[in-house]
Amino acid sequence: MQIGWVEIEDFRNYRTLSYSPAPSLNVLSGANAQGKTNLLEALAVLLTGRSFRTTKLAELPAWGTETTSVHGEIRRTEGSRTLRRTIQRRQDGAWQSVGEDAEWARVVAFGWQDLEIVNGAPQARRNFLDGFALRLYPTHRAALVRYRQVLARRNFLLQQRLAEPVLAPRLAPWDEQLVTVGAEVIDRRRRAAAALQTELARIYPALAGADPELAGGRHKVEIRYRAASGETGDGEELARALAAARRAEMRRGQTLVGPHRDDLAIELDARDARAFGSRGQQRLLALALRLAEVLPITDAVGTVPVLLLDDALSELDPEVRRHALREVESAEQVFLTSPEPLARVDGVHWIVAQGGIAAA
Ligand SMILES: Nc1ncnc2c1ncn2[C@@H]1O[C@H](COP(=O)(O)OP(=O)(O)O)[C@@H](O)[C@H]1O
Ligand SMILES: [Mg+2]
Residue 27's pLDDT is what? Predict the structure, then answer.
């Protein structure tokens, strides 16, 4: 899929902007704080209704304004459509995002904050996996919301410090739901991880190339879903783990098994990349994980997602940069920002300066 044109009003440091990008690789360069990342963010808002770097809508309108809008045309083989998204402040002061989504619009966004997926806490990996699963299976969102509600109810009951005979019948209906919805969440995360694994096994070595430090011993990258409840993560196992954890849960006043405690193991040559990966390996893994999202999303949705790559090449060696560019060229429409012009890269070049954009 592609963005045909976009019009932005009062979005971050942009007052008004009309931009018709190329259908292939767009290289956006410009000095710091000119609006490169902000523009990628506006494109994500057009396509998905949300930013990839913040959940706070209030950050998006230009300072001193109460409304921002992003309007544009998106295209795929079957046809095109225009979308409009408005983020505004309601009478009661809360911010809202209004507009329609195209059910086939998808984005793969990368920024160096994604290093957190590899070297951060388990929460970062769960969010990554859920974010990916959401783009593959739209019903995942409802399951996550429901799971959070069930968890909150269950934790509330556990915090009442009730005696076991009183607590047990009250917990029972929530246990049942935690098991049903939890197993659903785990199943989708597992399938998402398996889809990523297939791509990652190809992409990581392709990016690392012959670099001995990056490639590691045998180039072998593996990601595996790790359920706190056990090997399979199915409903029965989850129910058993929950029963076994009852005493500890009563002591701690919180739910100790379920997908909110799970993790994604990321290994390079059978060693945990978080603990043992070099900084260079971790950086490359973060980029490879995002690029690994492209093909499974394409297969699930039937159109290639738009790639928003924020400063993706800056931390890489020249050799690895070339490999990354080759990988990216096989996608459809790509936006790649860079502090330098990247003159030797094939693509349409743009200069971003002071909340404006011009052909280079
Ligand atoms: N809501 C906002 N309103 C106006 N300016 C903003 C807003 N949010 C961020 N900015 C400004 O946008 C600029 C950063 O733009 P950014 O796209 O991150 O730059 P870069 O080109 O380095 O990627 C900064 O100068 C920042 O102060
Ligand atoms: Mg930036």
Answer: 97
Q: What is the CATH number of the domain that holds 358?
A: 3.40.50.300
- What contacts 30, CB < 8 A, 6 or more positions away? 36, 337, 339, 351, 352, 353
Q: Mapping DSSP to helix (H, G, I), strand (E, B) and coil, where does residue 75 land?
A: strand
Distance 56 CA to ligand 1 centre (A): 15
- What residues are in contact with ligand 1 under a 6 Å CB criterion? 12-13, 30, 32-38, 59, 62-63
**The token pair that represents 294 in the structure block:** 């492209």
Task: Determine the residue type at 103.
Answer: E
Residue 218: the pLDDT is 60
Kindly report whether the global pTM for this prediction surpasses the value 0.85: yes
In a domain, 201, yes or no: yes
Residue 202 shares a structural domain with residue 86: no
Res 215: pLDDT:
65
pLDDT for 291: 97
- Whether the CB-CB separation of 153 and 146 falls below 8 Å is answered with no
Ligand 1, pocket-test mutation among 13, 16, 34, 65, most atoms within 8 A of CB: 13
DSSP-assigned letter for residue 61:
B
d(CA 201, CA 191) in angstroms, rounded, equals 16
- Six token digits for residue 27: 């290289």
Task: Please report the DSSP string for 120-149 in residue order.
Answer: S-HHHHHHHHHHHHHHH-TTHHHHHHHHHH
Distance from residue 118's CA to the centre of ligand 1 (Å): 27
Torsions phi, psi for 238 (to 5 deg):
-65, -40
Looking at the fold, whether 274 and 333 belong to one and the same domain comes out as no
Same domain? 325 vs 275 = no
For residue 80, the model assigns a pLDDT of: 96
- pLDDT means per 10 residues, the chain with 360 residues, are 98 98 98 98 96 94 96 96 96 93 96 96 98 97 98 97 94 96 96 96 90 68 92 89 95 96 94 91 96 98 97 91 93 97 94 96
